[in-house]
Input
Amino acid sequence: MAKIQINIDIVSDVVCPWCVIGYGRLKKALANFDNKFDVNIVWHPFELNPNMPKEGENLRQHLSKKYGTTLEGSIRARAMLTEEGEKVGFKFNYFDEMKMLNTHQCHQLLHWTKESDFQIQLAEAFFEHFFSNRGTFTEPELIHVVQKVGLNPHQAQSVIANNSYTEEVKLIEEHWHQKGIHGVPLFIFNGKQALSGAQEVTTFERVLNQYLK
Output
């Protein structure tokens, strides 16, 4: 039997832990359908902190200023996120000096790969680089991630140096803001049905089941 084509747009930021968990749960849900779907996933930019300086800001201090998160709350949240990550096969490797970083260059590179088969690999590699490998988004580290997934490092360097997709990224982000989107992740199925947040595997399964009828 022919597979059912399904397009899934994911609005996300590469420093968003719930984006990692939500994506992991989506993948688990898809795996439960025994290859019934031909899935096309496209990642869309959403900078949670577009004005973050390049040097970044201590993550705990950032969350305290932005959300009022206490040290105790941060410790509990990191433990819970680590546990939820393990359930979807992802390793969160938090540490005291971890920083919130500016992600604009990451989104330029993801937009650059939008029409290729590399975009999913690059998105996953950015998550792993930041959360699992304690990486930052300096140009040399970004180029290293790009090379790791098999992309051309010289082209990537040009994208970064020339800010080749800055305007496109900003326009896409403005599009989501105008639609009332203020947080991520957001999963959109076939351009119509949207799920906001890191939904449970069963919730994703319910949506996917609708496409089998």
Remarks:
- The chain has one domain: 4-210.
- Residues 71-87 form the longest helix (17 residues).
- The radius of gyration is 17 Å.
- The mean pLDDT is 97.
